[in-house]
């Protein structure tokens, strides 16, 4: 929590980034002092965050370790709603060890909370996969499971296998939700397909986010789906009809409805800066969520990959299907999305924090624990330098990237 700009007189000399100091961890208290702290109420210059026992504390005891983060930003850890993998690992098909490698890769880039997204597959396979991923949710490594497909439109399939697509039968939708054993957080579907509206209602009734995406819906069909309980637009603009002045399509319905949060992939490839600006202006900071839609290559590099059964080539950081050149997810990490939002899109830092931390945490129903820097919440935070380059990552009070040695 931000407080006075100077540490208490009893505190020891502060450790500058790059110097040695006692680590943050269980049983210790550390004051991260002197930075620009982004709180729900605004930015506090020369503020401090007190970390004790893995959580943010309201006060520091005598003799607490002080880390001087003057000229740095302290922001909440990032929360990624939509992520298919990273570090060379797929959340859809990787072993538990590989999934954890992907999670670690994103943590090193500031994402302290990640939802594992699957891609289209046979329902039995996805049900088994949901059960496997749920174990990692239960042990605290993932925040939930997101099913992207198979209940999407073949007209807007993107990097999903058309042969595996299905209409959203509510019975099959419910089977996947149950297979996740309470860890299903979101499902992307095309509500205009037969069974779509009933499936949206079912998801809403079971506390699972119904997200509209990979859809060929009209404006009217989209509005009907929102009335049925859909609350998220999966990577707005991508894999849906474009905005038109006579045929506005789903984009207009999703942007104008106050009940909908819009996902945006801010990598400079998926969206022109003007499209991103339009979305943020229309939806406002309260209804914007930055995501990665990352695939295996995030944090790993160019090369040949697989996305479900489809072959992908990553070149110059852009992932495309080998057979038709469609964009196949991204190689984005959220620290890059943050920096781009601040330096290219010129968004206020407080709005970026809402889009990259607070809003996703709220959607997932975990904003009592993460998403903002407040006493009692998990000590998840990111340290950025004055140019918005990542210098430190703290998760549950332990350094993933230590700013004192970075």
UniProtKB/TrEMBL annotation:
NCBIfam families: nagA. InterPro entries: Amidohydro-rel, GlcNAc_6-P_deAcase, Metal-dep_hydrolase_composite, Metal_Hydrolase. Residues 74-400 form the Amidohydrolase-related domain. Residues 1-22 are annotated as: Disordered. Belongs to the metallo-dependent hydrolases superfamily. NagA family. CDD domains: NagA. It comes from Streptomyces tremellae. It comes from the Bacteria. SUPFAM superfamilies: Composite domain of metallo-dependent hydrolases, Metallo-dependent hydrolases. Keywords: Carbohydrate metabolism, Hydrolase, Metal-binding. This is N-acetylglucosamine-6-phosphate deacetylase.
């Amino acid at each position: 929590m931000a407080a006075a700009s100077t540490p208490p007189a009893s505190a020891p000399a502060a450790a500058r980034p790059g110097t040695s100091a006692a680590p943050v961890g269980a049983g210790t208290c550390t004051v991260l002092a002197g930075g620009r702290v982004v709180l729900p109420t605004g930015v506090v210059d020369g503020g401090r965050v007190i970390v004790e026992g893995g959580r943010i504390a309201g006060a520091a005891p005598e003799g607490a370790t002080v880390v001087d983060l003057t000229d740095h930003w302290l922001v909440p850890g990032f929360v990624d709603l939509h992520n298919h993998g990273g570090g060379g690992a797929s959340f859809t098909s990787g072993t538990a060890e590989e999934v954890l490698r992907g999670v670690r890769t994103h943590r090193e880039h500031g994402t302290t909370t990640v939802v594992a997204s699957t891609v289209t597959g046979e329902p039995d396979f996805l049900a088994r996969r949901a059960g496997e991923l749920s174990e990692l949710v239960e042990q605290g490594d993932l925040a939930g499971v997101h099913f992207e497909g198979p209940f999407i439109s073949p007209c807007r399939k993107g990097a999903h296998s058309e042969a595996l697509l299905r209409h959203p039968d509510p019975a099959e939708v419910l089977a996947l939700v149950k297979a996740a054993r309470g860890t299903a957080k979101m499902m992307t579907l095309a509500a205009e397909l037969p069974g779509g509206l009933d499936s949206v209602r079912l998801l809403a009734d079971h506390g699972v986010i119904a997200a509209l995406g990979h859809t060929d819906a009209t404006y009217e069909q989209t509005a009907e789906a929102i009335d049925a309980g859909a609350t998220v637009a999966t990577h707005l603009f991508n894999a849906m009809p474009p905005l038109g002045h006579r045929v506005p399509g789903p984009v207009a319905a999703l942007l104008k409805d106050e009940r909908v949060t819009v996902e945006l992939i801010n990598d400079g490839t998926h969206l022109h800066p003007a499209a991103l600006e339009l979305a943020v202006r229309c939806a406002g900071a309260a209804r914007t969520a930055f995501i990665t839609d990352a695939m295996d290559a995030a944090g790993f590099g160019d090369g040949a990959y697989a996305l479900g059964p489809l072959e992908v080539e990553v070149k110059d950081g852009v992932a495309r299907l080998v057979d038709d050149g469609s964009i196949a997810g991204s190689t984005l990490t959220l620290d890059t999305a943050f920096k781009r939002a601040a330096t290219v899109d010129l968004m206020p830092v407080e709005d970026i924090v809402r889009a990259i931390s607070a809003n996703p945490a709220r959607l997932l129903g975990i904003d009592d624990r993460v998403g903002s820097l407040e006493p009692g919440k998990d000590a998840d935070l990111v340290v950025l330098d004055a140019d918005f380059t990542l210098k430190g990552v703290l998760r549950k009070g332990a350094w993933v990237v230590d700013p004192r040695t970075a």
